[in-house]
Write a structure and sequence with these properties.
The complex is a heteropentamer of chains A (660), B (181), C (100), D (531) and E (523). Chain B is mostly helical. Helices cover 75% and strands 0% of the residues of chain B. In chain B, helix 1 runs antiparallel to helix 2 and helix 2 runs antiparallel to helix 3. Chain D is mostly helical. By secondary structure, chain E is mostly helical. Chain E is built from 24 helices and 3 strands. Chain E starts with a strand and ends in a 6-residue tail after the last helix. The relative contact order of chain E is 0.11. The chains are: A mainly alpha (660), B mainly alpha (181), C mainly alpha (100), D mainly alpha (531), E mainly alpha (523). Chains B and C meet through helix 1, helix 2, helix 3, helix 4 and helix 6 of B and helix 1, helix 2 and helix 3 of C.
Chain lengths: 660, 181, 100, 531, 523
């Protein structure tokens, strides 16, 4: 395994992005599809090489592509860390990704913007690969934001639909909230470690105080919650179903949404140091698992049911992380990727068959019309419901067992109830789609057809994986996967607890019982007495409406955040224009009016003051000019009198006494 | 005798002066002035100024007064009913008051000063005309010349002023316009 | 011997008389005549002092006064003629061109 | 050679006005050419003087000394120092430009040019007089032609025709009304200006006579007086106050300024230029020449007076200019505002700031000369100075509009013009003594920009009123030449200020040393200069 | 920072006066087409020269390079002193680059008074380049002020809004108001120099050699701050910006929003000259608060704007808050980040304004209500808007990220609370940009859209593509540029740490030598 192969893994899709993105309008969509597919395939092959080498050698290695940016004590490389965790993720991402690409070529056939779709998909692959391969937090973050962007683009693929556009925005913004938390975590890591490389950070983690570790872990958790659609930031994921179905399968089921889990597992060293954070992770995971499952019970949109199911399953993974069962989390991640991708793709096949219909109430009895799809969907349902020996059983059971054995009985209870609900709504879904009376529109019914082979083949492969994938983790706690991941996903300081095989088998039995109970309940409600569900709904309308409206969380968020910030924005806009600008303009106005005042002074004090002098002079002259009669004798008289007075004065001066 | 003469000349002069300013008819005034001039000449004689008395008679009575009378007749002035200003009593009062004060002043004041050489005896020897001639053409020669020029100027000025204006220049300030302003 | 004061007093009386003429008479020509009276009063004074101080200067001055009186009469009368020609008036209160 | 150059500067305009007496008004071109030739001769000579002034020697140069009255101690004694030389240069530039600005005057051209030449020559005379008597003589001589220039060739202000006095009689001459700010007759302006300046001159004369009377040597010779006359106590204060306020009234310092905007508004363009450009600097110059030279200690003690008043000048003039609606009022008040900067520079008694003040005198002469020239052109074309009624003229007169922008920039003190150099020197120099005033001054720059741009916008941009459709730009070289001369001078010295600076500094430094008594420099810097 | 490297050829002068001479060359031209081509030729030549400058720039050096020095006014120590160092070099390139785009942009969008327009643009380029290459404070001030003139006329004569007259005057007055205070500050610096050395100087390199008392520093700091803050504009002084940018022509918006003159001034003058004042806790606190308020305030106001250009204005204010807090984090990352963020904003804000201009030309408005769903009609425009917008809001991989990241990192190192508040700006940035994008570009076709709606022309595509290239270059492989700037930033940070008095000890001998050389004034 050379460095080049590692680097090539993300480079192939990137090349496809560039080729299709820049030149895609020059050639046919088919070619674009082939390029995209080929790139992912090549990438998969490379990943396979890497995987095999890791399996054989078992050692982690770092590959530095180039120095990205640097300055002061910060130095960030664009580098990759290839260790077992990455290898597993690589396989999931490229493998499932490749299958979904294959499927998409068929599914998206003839859509407007086919090329664009594959550009986005490939870009997603690039980002996702960076995410899982990065050797430091920032490369992870590139991928992290990159998948967010692609998610945005692909949700908004049908951009002319208002709901799609809104969903896209929502997805990105909610993710961004998580990202902000993640960024803070990165800063804290850098502040404490002066580096962002995993290896260095994890090597020096011992110097960290518990408080700081908790802070970092919680901030990381915020990021993970946003990306993995956990409470309270899950709302974007159901809306994200506006995107094309392969997108839902790839991004919103198999890969991107599990990035949070990946990240928690990747940084578990930090989490291990912070018990509070661990409990928080577990609580959030468990709560989400249950919460989303309850909503999933009553949804009528096929993809939304699956979406809530995804949220719920992600909750399981978080729960697993919360109890320190990182391997179990990854295990569930892998199996979930298989069966959830399967479910989504086959749901896509259903939708494809029905010409775009997604409402469960307009389906039913499709079992015979689209048999392949039915079969694979049923396999998927069994897998997720936890029917042994399918993949979901093993992983889910391991999580529950872990919770039980760690004496986290609360988590166990949450998981158990969640499992029951999962089983129930999944079978409800299956029954509503494939069994019972057909409720399909007559017009649509005529055109129902099985999907083409390039769609069904991946389905079948995925179904196979869903069936067999669980065996990588068998037997529980000691499967191949556990051994493989032992180096990277073992909790720090965890004491391997030995439990009796009896307990394990008992727990398995409980799990099977739960799954079967869910199946039976669904069977009763939707096959045996289809009207019962409605009766129940009528009996407690409040509960039903609440569930149907997803606990009104979207509305509450709208009210608290969206409308709030809009109001704040308007208020501040007003403030800006009317207060700040006025204040600063007010200075101008003050200058202006003091200018007016000073002009007034100029006019009425200085100017008119001078004019008053002049005018007084004028008026005085005007009155005294009467003296100037122009008559000679008057002048003469004045002269005489004046002369006389003058003489008097002179005499007074000379003689010193008055003349008279 | 000499007091009698002085009394006569003085009294007549004063009376003639008063008549000059008090008579209504300008011609009568002129004649009164003539009387005054004659009697002043008499006073000059009493003061050993025979030459001056002669000049007084010839120039004043002979030339100037004739000029006045000539103008009076030329203008053909009629006697006006109101020959004094409206408010003449004020002036009269002021004049009389000043006169009174002057007289008081005059009679209070002793006169004296540096005596010159031209005593009565000297004048009687050489004759006043001779003395005047000597003085005028020695000490006062420049003044004399200036007076000559002055008189020439006055003559020219009088001619220019009294000349009939040519038609081209008469369009300026006519009497009506002047009056309006 | 007649005291000097008598001449001076006479001169003063004549002077005031002439002055009053100037002040109270409306006729321009009479005003000029009054001026002549004043000049004569001055002359009397000059000559009297000349006599009493044994100096020829007074007489000389009187002589020049007479000359100036002649000039004054000539010019003054010429002005009167001009004014009369323009305004048909010889009364001083009709002629107030000197007014501002 | 040098002293002949200086004499040429002074007497070429006089000679020109004498020659003009013998040229009939019918030969209008001849009249103009003679005026231009004499002004040009003066300009060339002054350029020579300016360039040939040797800053390494300093002191007074190009001296001519003809005794006139030995008994009274009066002599025709001229020469320039580093302060006089640039101002002489500025005067002759403005005179030369003014001749061309007035090129289109039709009414009594000859007389106009005669008075203009006398005005400028007298101004130049003040700047080079080394004898108090002749200083005062030229000073008065420069005031009087203003009366005629305003009264005969001036223009009335908008709105005055509607005025009548309390008795209903039309009364637009000489005195006017109490509240007739902004609407005056040219006669009023002329009378106000003349009375004001004469009154100021009388005070100054009293001061000069007191100096003469109480000095040990009975002479009017400034150079002798500054070394031998010594005044102290109340007498010195009285003399200084008389001299200062007498001359400051022409400067004009607040609150003695009110004649100047009126005068500018009424005056024809060339007169306004000379008036605002150099005539007002007579005040500063004379204060420097008389008070700084002869009464150094008192100057040091009393220079806080202008330091306080200059604040009012700057702010007050600026604000009124901002509110004025008449182009020439705006420029006029702007000038009186900018005079505050010069007083600030003088008041600080720092060689940088005083040098800055002198450079500012020159700079302001150029800038304000341009502004008045263009306001005059606009007035000639539109017969209006009312800013609100004008507008959009840039379409019709792009050259003038462009030049106007440059003039505005120069007036604001935009870098690249000599005004900027002067401003920064004043700011740098005056900060230590008068920081508050400096802040006011820099805010005044903003204010300047505000009102000048406001006026520029009002005149040249916006909608063109239909009645001004016929107006035209400057087309002939005679119209453009003066603007170009002033612009290029302003920019040239803005970019190459060194020679200028050296000249001014060579005079300012010893003067301030005397005032601040750093060293007894008097003898060093004045020996060998008295012939 | 004190050492200077000469370059045989006066390349900076050439760079400085090339556009000005170009403007003069345009004067006699009559033919509009030729005129445009000549203008383009000149700005391209300028770009070539500036690229040459970048190539010949010695990286990892704190020295003042390509130094040219001519005595201008020795009495006050004013000299024609040009040089670039790591702080300014990128701005020079950015300006030359943007000007090419502006000329390209204006090719068809300016119809009347074409010649004066291009002459103004070229004159503007000279003044902006002058601001960046001046080492002498007065020379800097000269260009700083001269810039107002073409700006004023560009806004006034070629503005698109109704209120452009008002906006132009407001812009000029605001800037002048600030800059006169700055002038006083410069004068005080020179006076301080005078007190120490008995000579005046406005040369940055000279002024750096004398210590300044801390109390004086704080006064001078605030005076200079006024000038820079008004131009930048920092939060409470920003209200001219909406008017100028919305009413003015796109070219002017690009320059005013894209070329961060004000914050450059902090880095160029305030920090090296006034390290103690810049470190003063009160000063830092006040400036930080202003910056943080600007971030949140600008972003939240931007959210609700219905006009794209107004949105951009407020987002610029918000981003400028980032730049300011990054600078006043006073550590390497913060300063480096601010510098990079300024450059990034040069690309992104400018790019967005260009795109707003394209929209404006097509829709006759940049209001959201008048747009809607234009992505369907104009995919290229939508794509570029997205790319540049993403760079604008700091998506990793684009130029926006590195700057923003480093700024936040630096601020975090200064105090975590500042960083925590600033991070919200990142969220709001996404909100306002994407919400706008959703409403205007996505969604169903707007009802008010004109019938004919052409996508970007070739010329417009060139503008957008070249911006995108720069964005990704800076985002993915910034090393060459970082090498250029790091040396100078290190020097600045060291100076900030050590303080002016410490550095004077270091360079005392050198300083005194220069001082004695400079004593032209005293004899």
């Amino acid at each position: 395994m050379s460095d080049l192969i590692v680097i090539l893994i993300p480079v192939f899709p990137l090349l496809a992005v560039l080729i299709n993105g820049l030149l895609g309008h020059r050639y046919s969509p088919e070619l674009a599809g082939r390029i995209a597919l080929g790139s992912v395939g090549l990438s998969f092959l490379c990943a396979l090489t890497v995987f095999s080498s890791i399996v054989s050698s078992g050692t982690a290695r770092e590959v530095i592509a180039y120095s990205w940016f640097f300055g002061g004590d910060l130095h960030v490389n664009l580098g990759f860390l290839i260790d077992p965790l990455t290898a597993i993720m690589l396989m999931v991402v490229t493998g499932v990704g490749f299958l979904i690409h294959v499927y998409s070529v068929g599914y998206m056939h003839g859509e407007e913007g086919f090329t664009r779709f594959f550009v986005y998909m490939n870009l997603f692959m690039v980002s996702m690969l960076l995410l899982v391969m990065g050797n430091n937090f920032l490369v992870l973050f590139i991928g992290w934001e990159g998948v967010g962007l692609c998610s945005y683009l692909l949700i908004g693929y049908y951009f002319n639909k208002v709901s799609a556009a809104k969903a896209a925005t929502k997805a990105f913004v909610v993710n961004r909230i998580g990202d902000a938390g993640f960024l803070v975590a990165i800063f804290l890591v850098f502040v404490n470690f002066k580096t962002l490389d995993y290896t260095k950070v994890f090597a020096n983690v011992g110097q960290l105080s518990t408080e700081m570790a908790t802070a970092i872990a919680l901030c990381l958790l915020v990021g993970a919650i946003g990306k993995s659609a956990q409470l309270p930031l899950y709302t974007w994921l159901p809306d994200a179903m506006e995107g094309p179905t392969p997108v839902s399968a790839l991004i919103h089921a198999a890969t991107m949404v599990t990035a949070g889990v990946y990240m928690v597992v990747r940084t578990h060293v930090l989490f291990d140091m912070a018990p509070i954070a661990m409990v928080t992770v577990g609580v959030i995971g468990g709560a989400t698992a249950l919460f989303a499952a309850t909503i999933g019970l009553v949804q009528t949109d096929i993809k939304r049911v699956l979406a809530y199911s995804t949220v719920s399953q992600l909750g399981y993974m978080f729960l697993a992380c919360g109890v320190g069962a990182y391997v179990a989390a990854i295990f569930h991640l892998v199996t979930h990727a298989f069966f959830k991708a399967l479910l989504f793709l086959s749901a896509g096949s259903v939708i494809h068959a029905l010409g775009g219909e997604q409402d469960l109430r307009k389906m039913g009895g499709l079992r015979r019309k689209i048999p392949v799809t039915f079969k694979v969907f049923f396999v998927g349902t069994l897998a997720i419901a936890g029917i042994p020996p399918l993949a979901g059983f093993w992983s889910k059971d391991e999580i529950m067992a872990h919770a039980f054995m760690n004496h986290e009985y609360g988590f166990y209870a949450l998981a158990a109830i969640g499992a029951l609900l999962t089983s129930f709504y999944m079978f409800r879904l299956t029954f509503l789609i494939f069994f019972g009376e057909s409720r399909v529109d007559p017009d649509v019914e005529k055109h129902i057809h099985e999907s083409p082979s390039n769609m069904t083949v991946p389905l079948v492969i995925l179904a196979g994986l869903s069936v067999l994938g669980g065996f990588i983790g068998v037997p529980p706690e000691h499967g191949w996967l556990h051994g493989f991941l032992a180096g990277v996903a073992t909790p720090v300081g965890a004491v391997p607890h030995e439990v009796s095989a009896g307990t394990l088998l008992g727990l398995m039995g409980v799990a099977i019982g739960i799954a079967v109970a869910g199946l039976g309940l669904a069977y009763y409600l939707y096959i045996v007495r289809p009207q019962t569900a409605d009766e129940w709904a009528e009996r407690s309308p409040a509960v039903y409406t609440t569930l149907l409206n997803k606990y009104y969380v979207d509305e509450i968020y709208d009210m608290i955040f969206v409308e709030f910030f809009k109001k704040v924005g308007r208020a501040w806009d007003w403030f800006d224009q009317n207060v700040i600008d006025r204040v600063i303009r007010g200075i101008g106005h003050a200058a202006d009016s003091s200018g007016a005042g000073i002009t007034w002074i100029e006019k009425h004090v200085i100017y008119s003051g001078l004019n008053v002098v002049g005018y007084a002079n004028h008026l005085l002259a005007w009155s005294w000019r009467k003296l100037q009669t122009g008559l000679v004798n008057h002048y003469a008289a004045v002269i005489v009198v004046g002369l006389f007075i003058l003489v008097h004065f002179v005499l007074l001066w000379v003689t010193g006494k008055s003349v008279l | 005798m000499i007091y009698l003469l002085f009394g006569y000349f003085a009294t007549v002069s004063i009376l003639a002066g008063v008549f000059t300013i008090a008579l209504k008819n300008p011609v009568h005034c002129g004649l009164s002035l003539l009387t005054l001039l004659m009697h002043v000449a008499g006073l000059f004689v009493m003061l050993n100024a025979e030459f001056l008395a002669a000049v007084q008679i010839i120039v004043y009575a002979g030339a100037i007064l004739i000029l006045y009378l000539f103008v009076l007749m030329l203008l053909n002035l009629k006697t006006e009913e109101q020959f004094l200003h409206k408010k003449y009593p004020f002036f009269l009062f002021a004049g009389v008051a000043i006169l009174g004060e002057l007289l008081i002043l005059i009679f209070q004041t002793p006169y004296g000063g540096i005596k010159g050489k031209a005593t009565s005896e000297v004048l009687l020897n050489v004759g006043p005309s001779h003395a005047i001639g000597i003085t005028m053409f020695s000490d006062y020669l420049l003044l004399f010349e200036i007076v000559g020029v002055f008189l020439l100027g006055a003559v020219i000025g009088a001619i220019v002023l009294a000349k009939t204006p040519s038609t081209s220049e008469s369009t300026g300030d006519g009497p009506t316009e002047v009056l309006k302003s | 011997m007649i005291p000097l004061s008598a001449y001076v007093a006479l001169s003063a009386i004549l002077f005031i008389t002439g002055l009053l003429g100037v002040l109270i008479r409306r006729n321009f020509i009479i005003v000029l005549m009054s001026v002549e009276i004043m000049l004569n009063a001055a002359n009397i004074n000059l000559v009297a002092f000349s006599h009493y101080l044994d100096s020829m200067a007074g007489q000389m001055s009187a002589l020049f006064v007479i000359a100036i009186a002649a000039g004054e009469a000539a010019v003054g009368l010429a002005i009167i003629i001009v004014v009369f020609r323009g305004k048909m008036a010889t009364n001083v209160d009709q002629i107030n061109l000197l007014k501002w | 050679m040098g002293s002949y150059a200086l004499l040429t500067v002074l007497f070429a305009p006089f000679l020109g006005s004498v020659v003009l007496l013998f040229i009939p008004n019918r030969a209008a071109l001849m009249v103009r050419m003679v005026a231009a030739a004499s002004a040009g001769l003066s300009l060339l000579a002054s350029l020579y003087v300016f360039m040939a002034y040797d800053p390494t020697i300093g002191g007074f140069q190009f001296i001519t000394h003809w005794p006139w009255s030995e008994e009274l101690g009066i002599a025709f004694y001229i020469g320039v120092d580093g302060i006089g030389a640039p101002l002489v240069f500025a005067s002759s530039i403005l005179l030369f430009a003014g001749i061309f600005i007035s090129w289109h005057i039709k009414d009594r051209t000859k007389e106009f040019y005669i008075f203009l030449l006398i005005l400028a020559a007298a101004t130049i005379g003040v700047f080079m007089s080394l004898d108090l008597f002749f200083l005062y003589f030229f000073y008065e001589m420069s005031v009087l032609p203003m009366y005629l220039l305003l009264g005969v060739w001036g223009s009335h202000t908008k709105g005055y025709l509607g005025m009548s006095d309390p008795e209903g009689v039309k009364l637009r001459d000489s005195v006017g009304f109490i509240f007739n700010f902004g609407s005056n007759s040219k006669e009023y302006a002329a009378m106000k200006l003349t009375l004001f300046l004469s009154a100021g001159a009388v005070f100054a004369l009293m001061g000069i006579l007191l100096i003469y009377h109480f000095s040990p040597v009975h002479t009017f010779d400034i150079l002798v007086l500054r070394e031998q006359a010594h005044f102290d106590g109340t007498l010195a204060y009285i003399i200084w106050i008389l001299i200062f306020f007498g001359f400051a009234s022409i400067a004009p310092i607040w609150p003695l300024h009110s004649w100047s905007p009126v005068g500018h508004a009424a005056a024809p363009a060339a007169t306004s230029m000379l008036h605002a450009g150099v005539l007002m600097k007579l005040g500063h110059f004379s204060i420097i020449r008389v008070a700084f030279e002869i009464l150094p200690e008192t100057t040091r003690e009393l220079m806080w007076i202008p330091a306080i008043l200059c604040v009012f000048s700057i702010i007050y003039g600026g604000f009124v200019a901002y509110h004025a609606k008449d182009t020439k009022y705006v420029i006029g008040y702007s000038s009186s505002s900018h005079m505050g900067y010069i007083f600030l520079g003088m008041a600080a008694l720092d060689y940088i700031s005083l040098t800055g003040a002198v450079i500012y005198m020159f700079a302001h002469a150029m800038a304000t000369g341009m502004l008045f020239a263009m306001a005059g052109w606009v007035y000639d074309q539109t017969h209006s100075r009312d800013i609100p009624s004008l507008g959009g003229l840039a379409q019709k007169m792009p050259f003038v509009a462009g030049a106007f922008v440059i003039a505005c920039m120069a007036s604001v003190g935009m870098p690249g013009t000599v005004n900027f150099i002067a401003e920064i020197m004043i700011i740098v120099g005056a900060w230590e003594k008068y920081p508050f005033q400096v802040v006011v001054a820099v805010l005044g720059i903003v204010l300047t920009l505000a009102y000048l741009f406001k006026m520029m916008r009002g005149l040249f941009y916006g909608k063109l009123a239909p009645e001004y459709a016929h107006v035209s730009d400057t087309r002939q070289w005679v119209d453009r030449l003066p603007l170009l001369i002033m612009i290029s001078t302003s920019i040239f010295f803005g970019i190459f200020p060194m020679h200028f600076y050296e000249i001014v500094r060579s005079t300012v430094v010893p003067m301030l040393d005397r005032i601040n008594q750093v060293a007894p420099v008097v003898a060093q810097h004045s020996t060998g200069l008295v012939p | 920072m004190l050492e200077e490297l000469q370059f045989g050829f006066p390349i900076l002068s050439m760079l400085l006066f090339l556009p000005f001479v170009g403007a003069l060359i345009l004067w006699p031209l009559k033919d509009v087409d030729l005129l445009k081509k000549s203008a383009l030729g000149i700005v391209v030549l300028e770009l070539v020269v500036s690229v040459l400058l970048l190539v010949r720039f010695v990286p990892e050096s704190a020295a003042m390079q390509f130094s040219e020095r001519l005595t201008w006014f020795p009495a006050l120590g004013i000299s024609y002193h040009l040089a670039v160092d790591g702080i300014s070099i990128l701005f020079v390139g950015l300006t030359a680059f943007l000007m090419v785009l502006i000329v390209l942009y204006s090719w068809d969008s300016v119809h009347e008074n074409v010649k004066p327009y291009f002459m103004s643009i070229l004159a503007l380029e000279t003044t902006i380049i002058g601001i960046f290459v001046s080492i002498d404070l007065i020379l800097f001030f000269v260009f700083w002020e001269l810039m107002l003139l073409p700006s004023y006329f560009l806004i006034k004569l070629w503005g698109v809004g109704e209120e452009r007259q008002y906006a132009a005057l407001k812009f000029v007055l605001y800037t002048l108001l600030g800059s006169v205070f700055m002038l006083v500050g410069f004068a005080l610096l020179s006076l301080n120099y005078h007190q120490v050395t008995n000579a005046y100087s406005f040369d940055l390199l000279e002024l750096l050699k004398v210590p300044i008392p801390v109390s004086d520093q704080i006064l001078i700091f605030w005076l200079i701050f006024m000038g820079l803050a008004f131009k930048a504009p920092v939060f409470p002084f920003h209200t001219w910006l909406p008017d100028a940018l919305v009413q003015g022509p796109i070219a002017m918006s690009v320059v005013l929003a894209g070329v961060k003159l004000g914050t450059y001034g902090f880095l160029r003058f305030s920090f090296p000259l006034l390290p103690e004042a810049s470190k003063d806790p009160t000063v830092v606190l006040i400036v930080m608060i202003l910056g943080l308020v600007a971030i949140v305030y600008g972003a939240i106001i931007a959210i609700i704007q219905a006009d794209f250009r107004r949105l951009l204005v407020f987002s610029s204010i918000s981003h400028l808050g980032f730049v300011v807090i990054g600078l006043f984090a006073l550590n390497f990352q913060g300063i480096q980040g601010s510098l990079l963020l300024m450059i990034n904003l040069g690309f992104t804000t400018a790019g967005l304004f260009f795109l707003a201009g394209f929209l404006y030309e097509r829709l006759g408005s940049t209001m959201v209500d008048d747009a809607g769903g234009v992505a369907a009609k104009m995919p290229l425009l939508a794509t570029f808007l997205l790319i540049i917008g993403m760079a604008f809001i700091g998506l990793p991989g684009t130029s926006g990220f590195i700057g923003e990241f480093l700024v936040l990192l630096g601020v975090f190192q200064a105090h975590w609370l500042y960083g925590a508040i600033a991070v919200t700006g990142v969220i709001f940035a996404a909100v306002y940009f994407l919400w706008f994008y959703e409403r205007a570009i996505f969604g169903p076709l707007g009802t008010k859209l004109p019938q004919v709606l052409n996508d970007l022309t070739q010329r417009e595509t060139i503008i957008a593509v070249s911006l995108c290239v720069m964005i990704f270059w800076f985002g993915l492989y910034p090393s060459p540029f970082l090498n250029m700037i790091n040396g100078s930033i290190k020097e600045v940070v060291e100076r900030l740490d050590k303080g002016s008095v410490a550095s004077i000890q270091l360079d005392k001998r050198l300083a005194m030598d220069r001082v004695f050389d400079n004593r032209t004034v005293k004899d």
